[in-house]
Amino acid sequence: MYHKELDPFPANFLWGAASAAYQIEGAWQADGKGPSIWDTFSKLPGKTYLGTNGDVAVDHYHRFREDIQLMAEMGLKTYRFSVAWSRVMPDGEGAVNEAGLAFYEELVDELRRYQIEPVLTLYHWDLPQALQDKYNGWEGRETIAAFKSYCRVLFERLGSKVTYWVTMNEQNVLTSLGYRWELHPPNVADTKRMFQANHHLNLANADAIALFHELVPTRKIGPSFGYGPMYPLRADPNDVLAAENGEAFNNSWWLDVYCKGKYPKVIWKQLEALGIAPQLLEGDLELLKRAKPDFLGINYYHGGTAAQNTLEKERIASQEKAFSGIDPYLMQPKDQQAQTPETVLFQSVENPYLEKTDWGWEIDPVGFRVALRRVSDRYDLPIFVTENGLGAIDLEKDGKVHDSYRIDYLAQHILEMQKAITDGVTVIGYCAWSFTDLLSWLNGYKKRYGFVYVDRDEEDEKELTRIKKDSYYWYQEVIQNNGLRKGEGIS
Question: Quick check: is 244 catalytic?
């Protein structure tokens, strides 16, 4: 769709940045905090790059005032962060750790002092280890009740201070990497267990939303989903059908539950045929239907491309290239698992039109517009872009970091977001990933995302000095202008 002129961003548009507790806070045992599954998993040999973990991370726990001061200087309108469940409730249930709860209240108050809108994420992957040990984590239905109790504590303490709440962050990623590929905790490779844990997460999400609407009816809540549109490799109807299957399996399986309160029929039938559909108990579907989000958070990095499944098309043609490796935003099978739903649905292939990052992620700004359009049309909810960014190897020299590649990446994506708004999509705000550099879950400190460079590496914490990158000053200007300058972002 061509527009002669693009609509301006809304006057109250929330320009922001994001983070996650385990990746930035450190202080893993401070002030009564209990261990999380990431505290445990990251110390297993060979699971993370050079054995890196979040024991110190970038020490945001002790430096949050300094970091918020940098946010204020940049002019951020909003900041998305997550709460470490085990910092607030060390055992995941029962006693509340006042010191941990007070930390997040101080964080929110400091953000408010600088007129930065806090966006609080309730769950960003760091389940208390006690719940993993006691109930087998998300495989036990008892964890649903524990999550509701944890949410109640936060709603009652911070409900009057936080307008936007995120329930689950990238449920599709945490379940696939944690329960299918053994790349995240709980370090499981069992597709059936993955779908059961995912169902319990759906129930926990719905329970939290229902409770929130009861306790904090004037505020807003919704999940954040790692969304990527699926494309057909060719106009061949078989590839188009494969892309439809991929869209349903990679995206609708979660989003339909969040927004419509029901599982999509096509994928459910396929999982039933394979014997891996989750077990439903009486009242489950009623709960899912009762809880509708106020907005939908979208984390966008890239999508995927599909060709006809390998059973009906035995080999990939010479001009095609099969997708290789593991990607958290594609439900790409690891090796040959006994129960692989994709086999009959589609095969993932590389998109010949897209370049890639150093970590093999496709760069697709137009796909961002496609994503926003699809989600808006299908679910008719306001969208909050809760993550979008570029992981790269940044080099600091003489107190400066020149990251023009990040500026180009963000500018192109922001431009496509503005086009989507002009198309008619309602977007509340945009949180770049991330504000400071942080611990990449599996890639240590080599893979950097931030506007602010943190001077540390895998072997040496150094002084954790904060250094403003070129992208910091660029984004500062974007915020001041409420968008890109004319012509910026067009290559």
Answer: no
Instruction: Grade residue 485 by pLDDT with cuts at 50, 70 and 90.
Output: confident
Which tokens belong to 187?
């370090």
| Whole-structure pTM value | 0.95
**Any domain includes 1:** no
Residue 323 confidence (pLDDT): 61
pLDDT surpasses 70 at 339: no
CA distances from 36 to 40, 63, 92, 139, 454 (A): 7, 21, 9, 16, 24
Token digits of residue 390: 């570029």
Q: What does the pLDDT read at residue 381?
A: 98
- For residue 337, pLDDT over 50 is answered with no
Task: Choose, from 25, 93, 139, 387, the residue flagged as catalytic.
Answer: 387
How far apart, in whole angstroms, are the C-alpha atoms of residue 47 and residue 210? 37
133-137 LR contacts (CB < 8 Å, sep 24+): 134/92, 136/186, 137/37, 137/186, 137/197
Number of domains making up the chain: 1
- For residues 410 and 390, the answer to whether their CB atoms sit within 8 Å is yes
Q: What is the CATH number of the domain that holds 54?
A: 3.20.20.80
Do residues 129 and 185 touch, judged by C-beta distance below 8 A? Answer: no
CB 239 within 8 A of CB 232: yes
Residue 8 domain flag: no
Residues 6+ apart with CB under 8 A from 27: 33, 59, 61, 62
Q: Which of 183, 200, 180 is nearest to 284 (CA)?
A: 200
Segments forming the whole domain that contains residue 183? 14-481
Is residue 4 one of the residues assigned to a domain? no
- Determine the straight-line distance between the first and last CA of the chain, rounded to whole angstroms: 18
Kindly state whether residue 94 falls inside one of the protein's structural domains.
yes
Give the C-alpha separation, 218 to 165, whole Å: 12
pLDDT for res 155: 98
Report how far apart, in Å, the C-alpha atoms of 121 and of each of 54, 175, 249, 464 are. Answer: 18, 17, 25, 25
418 has pLDDT over 70: yes
Please tell me the least confidently modeled range out of 23-27, 267-271, 331-335: 331-335
Tell me the sheet residues that pair with 220: 164
pLDDT at 489: 62
Per-residue confidence (pLDDT) for residue 190, from 0 to 100: 93
For residue 369, give both structure tokens: 């517009």
**Exposed, middle or buried, 4 (CB in 10 Å: 0-12/13-18/19+)?**
exposed
- Mean pLDDT over 161-166 rounds to 98
